[in-house]
Amino acid sequence: MARPKKETALRHSHPVMLRFTDTEYTRLLSHAKAANLPLAEYLRRQVTGKKVAVKYEIVADLPELKKLIAEFGKIGSNLNQIARHFNSGGIHSQEMQKAIRQGIADIYEMKYEVLRLAGDFRSLSEEIPDGQKGAASHGHPETHRQ
């Protein structure tokens, strides 16, 4: 089956010839690819002032983040050991409760450190989706200290 023809008013019937340097052309291609649009449609939207949504992925390779990720792994291992202790009938002692509260406080402190490190990247990203707003703002390490 053949593709249906566009209405006369919707047809792009006026070609425009432009010449770009290699650098300009490469840059335009990368922007069009980031916007997930063909080059012609990207340029058309730019010229007519229509909105072009370009999504960038920010990758951070900071030693501080790597260190925190390793710490999160250690915490996960410790939580598994605590769960195993209690699930096997371990005694709930004051010392154990104090250690758990300290662990929770440490987790919250690391959470805020990650948020502080990621703060510079937030300004570059678009608005946080409604479903995630407030997710990073609950809890405080001081409420979990003994």
TrEMBL record:
InterPro entries cross-referenced by the UniProt entry: NikA-like (IPR053842)
Protein's name according to its UniProt entry: MobC family plasmid mobilization relaxosome protein
Organism: Brotonthovivens ammoniilytica
